[in-house]
């Protein structure tokens, strides 16, 4: 397994202390509890680990049954290590209790990982009959954190040893000299048997860490590719990953929008919690993709609005009678809204807003069915954004807070366009906002780190970023 990776060790890294996100990346702080859960889960159900321990054939046989890796013919069976002691014929490992995991983060290096387990050995005693032994074992290992050749975080075993605890004779008779032989042999054999278990556990966890390097589709807009921007940093309580989101169009072009001029001040992380910080840049980039793809444009006709919302020349003339009073009555209007500049997202304390500059070309349909132009408006829509996390995304729901417009050009006399703002706001709320929220269904992707689920995360909007915090 070691030969598959080009490992860059992290010696000399210091504990993060300034709380500043210097880059525009997505900052992830993964609590040591999450790493512990990932290791424990790999012991329970990791397929790679099962290949090392052997297949569970029945409840009574335990993890190392007669058909397992260490079963009949294994290292501890007749002809194996104990072959020199004929009286202990057939002694082999039959059971291995699910290890209890404990770990300690080592700042600047990696992890001190301990697995405490109990090994059950069965065989024939020197006086005949079944011989059953149980030995408590603590597997202690030092694991370095680095970066693989693929650019993902990786844990790799650097040192492993076993400490043999109390040995119990559960059944059968075993003279003291032979008991000593068993003890000494276990001291020699168990490191070679159990340290590969640690290596296999790390293999499962590294697969989870490898998901940081992922390509997340954004529907018809493009995709976001997450990469590791800098070396991981280890503190006493968490692993910090600066993850760079690279946004690409459908054609594969990298979308580059202006970055915030100042670093993000990331709030401190409490113990037993994990954090992910989503930068303003990612919000602006997604909205920029919507704009360049034309997803923010719309043509509004009476068929898109309820009958209670007026959208005829009669209704328009009533708003500005001195200028538009001579329009033919009862003709349907066509409002062509176009967004030619990228929207601006603002993230401030506890509030998220989106500002969309737009032009609105107003026409009416003549009896012949041919549209005739009336005037053009330039305006700005200010939208409130409600944010809600799911397991893998940050979802947005927008509502119109206010609309300001001014007359850009007119095919008749000039007039005060602000008199149309309330009417236009009603039209946009029923015709434009539902379409915009459907297009935003792609959400803001979150990086995948150790399968941390942010669906129930506490969400905090700070200056130029959103912080999601989940209890481990």
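^ structure tokens above, recovered residues below v
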């Amino acid at each position: 397994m070691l030969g598959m990776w080009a490992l860059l060790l992290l010696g000399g890294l210091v504990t993060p202390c300034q709380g500043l996100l210097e880059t525009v990346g997505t900052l992830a702080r993964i609590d040591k509890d999450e790493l512990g859960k990932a290791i424990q889960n790999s012991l329970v159900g990791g397929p790679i680990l099962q290949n090392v321990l052997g297949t569970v054939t029945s409840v009574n046989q335990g993890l190392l049954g007669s058909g397992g890796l260490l079963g009949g013919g294994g290292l501890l069976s007749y002809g194996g290590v104990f072959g020199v002691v004929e009286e202990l014929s057939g002694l082999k490992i039959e059971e291995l209790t699910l290890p209890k995991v404990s770990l300690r983060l080592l700042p600047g290096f990696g992890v001190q990982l301990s697995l405490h387990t109990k090994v059950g050995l069965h065989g024939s005693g020197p006086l005949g009959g079944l011989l059953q032994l149980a030995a408590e074992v603590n597997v202690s290992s030092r694991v370095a954190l680095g970066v693989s050749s693929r650019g993902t975080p990786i844990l790799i075993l650097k040192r492993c040893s076993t400490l043999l605890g109390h040995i119990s004779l559960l059944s059968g008779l075993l003279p003291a000299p032979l008991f000593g032989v068993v003890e000494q042999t276990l001291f020699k054999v168990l490191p070679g048997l159990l340290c590969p278990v640690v290596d296999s556990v790390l293999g499962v966890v590294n697969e989870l860490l490898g998901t940081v390097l992922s390509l997340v589709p954004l529907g018809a807009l493009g995709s976001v590719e997450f990469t590791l921007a800098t070396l991981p940093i280890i503190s006493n309580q968490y692993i910090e990953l600066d993850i760079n989101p690279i946004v690409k169009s459908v054609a594969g072009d990298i979308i580059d929008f202006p970055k915030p001029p100042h670093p993000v001040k990331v709030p401190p992380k409490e113990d037993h919690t994990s954090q992910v910080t989503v930068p303003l840049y990612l919000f602006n980039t997604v909205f920029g993709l919507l704009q360049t793809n034309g997803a923010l444009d719309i043509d509004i006709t009476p068929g898109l609005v309820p009958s209670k919302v007026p959208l005829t020349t009669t209704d328009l003339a009533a708003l500005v009678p001195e200028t538009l009073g001579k329009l033919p009555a009862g003709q349907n209007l066509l409002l062509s809204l176009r967004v030619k500049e990228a929207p601006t997202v603002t993230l401030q304390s506890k509030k998220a807003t989106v500002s969309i500059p737009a032009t609105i070309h107003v026409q009416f349909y003549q009896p012949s069915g041919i549209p005739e132009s009336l005037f053009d408006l330039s305006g700005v829509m200010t939208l409130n954004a409600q944010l809600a996390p799911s397991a893998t995304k940050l979802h947005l729901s927008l509502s119109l807070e206010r609309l300001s417009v001014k007359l850009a050009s007119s095919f008749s006399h000039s007039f005060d366009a602000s008199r149309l703002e309330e009417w236009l706001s009603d039209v946009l709320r029923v015709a434009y906002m539902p379409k915009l929220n459907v297009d935003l269904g792609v959400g803001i992707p979150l990086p995948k780190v150790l399968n941390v689920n942010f669906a129930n995360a506490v969400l905090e909007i700070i200056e130029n970023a959103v912080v999601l915090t989940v209890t481990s």
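Residues 176-210 form the longest helix (35 residues).
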